Amino acid sequence: MLNNSGLEKVRKTQSNIIASSNYNFQIELIKYAGEFDSNKLIEISNELVDIFGPHSSLTEKNIHKYFNEKTLPFIARYNKNIIGYIIGVPLEYFKDEAWSHFDSNLFKENTLYTYAFVLEKKFQLKAGGYAKTLKRIYLSWAKKRGYKFITGHVRQDIAEKFPNTKIIKTFPIWYDAKDPFSYYQRTI
Length: 188
Fold this sequence. Notes:
Helices cover 22% and strands 33% of the residues. The chain is an alpha+beta fold. The protein has one domain (14-187): Aminopeptidase, CATH 3.40.630.
């Protein structure tokens, strides 16, 4: 779409506000990530690189693969700035990945894979409960859409602490991660 000067308009983020507080905090379900928000999401994703390696970073080329209407991408904003996100993707999206075939629910369309869950470091341990709120809304929306299970890959010691969770397989080597990672399945 062109404006009067002939320059291409930057498409804005399309989202729905799912929850908000009196303290300038809100959760949005993203339909499309616009250029400004995409840049911030890519920046935040770099916090995953130390844990998962360079393949975990969002890029201009792959961001719309995960932030679209076929996935469940939620962002958290504080004072109108994105501070984190969680992305749920139907397990079948990963049918070509070897690890997905360890899950007996593959092709049952009842499992949402948590592709990424990250908050900026300065908000991870704040007393605002940002991560907990974001995760709670994510789980609620998944359940309302008929998903029975949430899965994902996390460090082995973290997966063992999740409630209502079964470890499907532990991978001693998981891409560029320094620690073993477990593929978990959580009933919702």
